[in-house]
Amino acid sequence: MTDPKSAMSPDVVDETTAVRQGQTLGSMRWVLLVSLIAVVTSFIVAFAVMPMP
């Protein structure tokens, strides 16, 4: 089986960012940060209202 890179003609040059299928979104890190803060806050509230034996 041949290597796909060797099957391309040598004059074809693709930019990595131009051919990438996905996007790097800056807003995704904010979603993860807010979610992490929400989970930590939820655990703090849950332990604060838990009855002591």
TrEMBL record:
Membrane-spanning residues: 30-50
Protein name listed in UniProt: Uncharacterized protein
Organism of origin: Neoroseomonas lacus
Record key words, sorted: Membrane, Transmembrane, Transmembrane helix
Organism phylogeny: Bacteria, Pseudomonadati, Pseudomonadota, Alphaproteobacteria, Acetobacterales
